[in-house]
Design brief:
By secondary structure, this protein is mainly alpha-helical. About 75% of the residues lie in helices and about 5% in strands.
Amino acid sequence: MLARLLVRWLITSIAVAAAVLLVPGITAGQDALAAVIVTAAVLGLVNAIVRPILQFLSCGLIVATLGFFLLVINASTLMIASSIAQNWFGVGFVVAGFWPAFWGSILISIVSFLLSIFITEPKRAESDY
């Protein structure tokens, strides 16, 4: 179970690093490696805790926009993760506004998806079920 978590964290860290490199308006401070690693962990927690709440509260908008509002929710979770990483952990991961968060969240999703195809997660043991 720990190995699976570490693989997911690695994939998310690489995806966040890609967003830092490719999306104008997303930057990691002087210690970019620490900023990316911490932000990836925070993003995982925000996606696990806050994102379902946002989806529940906005399910009407999600249905009305045929799911496109999920892109706004993804951008919001990236902005929340950036804020938590900066304020609680003191890392220099900065998202400069909605549009960088929007494009960054799309890029993070695509890179994570592609990497999860090529990087196989360890199999679950019988005791994990």
